[in-house]
Amino acid sequence: CRTNPRRLGDSGHWTTNSDRRIDKIISPIIDKGDLNILDSTVKDIGKDLRSRITIIEKNGKVIADSKANPKSMENHLDRPEVVSAITNGFGTAIRHSFSVDKDMMYVASPLKINDKKVVITRLSVFMDDYITFINNLEQNILKIILISLFITIFLAIILSKTITKPINILVSDTNKVAEGDFSIRSNIKTNDELELLGNSFNKMIEKLDELFTQTVNQKDELNKIISSIQEGLVVIDKSGIITLSNESFNNIIGLKSLKGKSYKEVIRDENVIKIIKNMIISNTNITNELEFKGEYYICNGNLINDNNELVIIFNNISNLKKLENIKRDFVVNVSHELRTPLTVINGYIETLEDEVDDKNKKYVNIIKNHTKRLINIVQDLLIISELEQKNTTLDISEVNVTELVENLKSTFEQKLKEKNINLNFNIENDLHGFYADSFKLDQIFINLIDNSIKYSEKGSIEVQIKKEDSNIKIEISDTGLGIPEKDQERIFERFYTVDKSRSRQYSGTGLGLSIVKHIVNLHKGKIELVSKLNNGSKFIITLPKNQN
Ligand code: ADP
Asked: For the segment 155-196, what is each residue's pLDDT rounded down to a tens digit?
């Protein structure tokens, strides 16, 4: 019975519990040395266990066996399980048993009796029983795994339902809020973190609703304010599309809905389009006066939103313009009416001057001075009114600078002599090709040189004319009273005088510099002033060399 012995691994351990129970029973019997009792006991236990038990001495001699007579059994020292039990303390083997014609599994282990004697107890079972046991075990394990799997899946479904359902509700609520429905409130009652999440969601929606209502109210308020503004208001983005306009602006344009349209498409006035285009390009806040459909507007353009949008306010100043025109007409009419009587009065005064006695001469002189002042005012008013006319044109011709200088010298000769002041000219030789309105240019020189003489007690006046790139630069400087810094900004305004007494003392009108500025502007030039009180003044005029 020793064919194909096979070693069993730890699977043989299932027999060790039976071994130990047998060990306890047979140990005292072996200790006593009663082999007959030992054999019958082993046979009894073998019947109970439905397996064969063999007790073998260390030398291989069988001393008891549950199935056979030990005396007739051969030495077992060659059995692998026995050898392994002696050397390793435990041995197993599977081999075919020819006596029962079945595969058997043997499990052997040493048994120490009172620290003296060692015997080997061997348990043999049918492999069929073992395989049936293992199969049963496998089936049971499979059943347990299947049941566990089923329970796990079932629990997972239940769990996922309890978690995903409220999450799905929350997702659908969030979508409704995203569509603008702020009345939605979460109703999750799971008594866990999801319920807390639902509560937080509700608080967030309440806050959002509050903020949204606030924003809508503010927007409404702003819209009401914008539409109630009398001035036309339009917002244009960088690409020229109107993003907002109020009713007043729509009325100016004569269209109802302007939002989303290009300003060029709705305005259709080359001049206005050009002004707006400049405002968009220039990237600064600009104020412009313009005429549109027979009305006059002051346009104020302000850049907002990081210079991406331009807000333009159209303020209708047509009434002001009308008033201004009436005023100008009135001034012109009055000046015209006054001119003749004043000239007549002046004539009488000159006659009277020669005839009055010395006592009355001083009064005649006072009347003469005041009349002269009045004549000057009337003259200046007429000049300025003419310059301010909308359709004032320039009579352009090439300027004869030599002639101009000669005229100025003779005009001021008397006055210069009276005050002992020198008038020096520094004129660049090659000034041909300088085109301007000669009559108006004369006026500039007369007014400025006259002022220099008026407001200087001594010293000299320098007049310099030279070319500078494509411009003509004129500088008139004196060593006179000078102009305080605080007045310099307003000095070119109509009727502005540094101080009344100074002006009256020198019979000024406060219109001279205003006339100069007008003429310079008409020539598309510029005028600057450099002056210090008591330290002279210098007026610098730059005019384009020709007026193309
Ligand atoms: P006015 O007829 O009073 O001179 P202007 O418009 O010519 O009026 O000048 C305005 C004011 O500027 C004058 O009142 C005067 O005080 C001052 N002003 C003008 N030119 C000079 C100058 N060259 N030197 C000092 N002050 C001057």
From this structure: 988 888 888 888 888 889 899 988 988 888 888 888 888 889
One-letter amino acid for residue 450 of the chain: D
- Tens of pLDDT, residue by residue over 476-488, are 999 999 999 999 9
Is 513 close to ligand 1, i.e. is its CB under 6 Å away? Answer: yes
Output the DSSP codes for 36-49.
Answer: HHHHHHHHHHHHHH
Residue 408 CA, ligand 1 centroid: distance in Å: 19
Residue nearest to atom 23 of ligand 1 (CA): 452
The runs of H, that is alpha helices, within 179-306 are: 193-228, 247-253, 263-267, 270-282
Other residues' Cβ atoms within 10 Å of the Cβ of residue 37: 14
Q: Which amino acid residue places its CA nearest to atom 2 of ligand 1?
A: 508
What phi-psi label fits residue 259: left (phi over 0), alpha (psi between -120 and 50 degrees) or beta?
beta
CA of 386 to the centre of ligand 1 (A): 21
Cα 427 to ligand 1 centre (Å): 25
Helical (H) or strand (E) element with 133:
helix 127-178
**Does the Cβ of 502 fall within 6 Å of ligand 1?**
yes
CA dist 207 and 201 (Å) reads: 10
